[in-house]
Design brief:
Number of domains: 1
Number of strands: 7
Strand content: 5-15%
Oligomer: single chain
Helix content: 40-55%
CATH topology: Rossmann fold
Strand order of the largest sheet: 3-2-1-4-5-6-7
CATH class: Alpha Beta
Number of helices: 10
Largest sheet: 7 strands, parallel
Radius of gyration: 18 Å
Structural class: alpha/beta
Length: 263
Amino acid sequence: MTRTIQQLFDLTGKTALVTGGSRGLGLQMAHALGEAGARVMLCSRKAADLELAVAELQAAGIDARWIAADCAVEEDIRRLADETLERMGRIDILVNNAGASWGAPAQDHPVTAWDKVMNLNIRGYFILSQHVAKRWMIDNGGGRIINIASIAGLGGNPPDMQMIAYNTSKGAVINFTRALCAEWGKYKINVNAICPGFFPSKLTAGTFKIFGAENLASHAPLLRLGDDEDLKGTTLLFASDAGKHITGQWLAVDGGVSTVTGG
């Protein structure tokens, strides 16, 4: 029997692991998954932030828990996946969202900063995806992996935005998504990427301070920044059976910025 649209988007009985989930885009996506019926495990480095985020989700009626871990550290990543499976029993949806940025002219960009960005933004995605797939998804009917990239990964830097490591890492996330979907489709694992534009967050605070929120909004055809709801629909599409025939794709959620900047 053909399912209704409500049934296709329903995540009841599913478990989601969201990295970088204690605030900003990660917490917004956790709300979306939980509001659709999923149980949610949040991860970030700081327990205090996670406690506040889980309290917020639980107040909204969502079954949410947390694990503190550094997704740039291999041992932490493996512990995160193992402990989630131990406590939740399954991982149906993985949202790779933890990330870092660094601003500096390319000729002066510290190599240590380059490594920090790459270790968290792409190496961590690979290690966690690999471990979750081997421990659960491959042998248990598949799953959904959602990688958070950025419109910064769709093209080069504007001359005044000097973030070569961040942009390079997000371009890598997009191709990582494509390569992984091609290999893991046979296991019924869908792998997709979301490319947010400018959303107010701790990660973008420095950019907003330099360039101004109104100025950044003025470059979007919709003349606005992303808000606390704008990632929810895309997240739910990629996580649910409504998107079961979508894999290896990226979708910009940016108010149209990438259409006028050549991304």
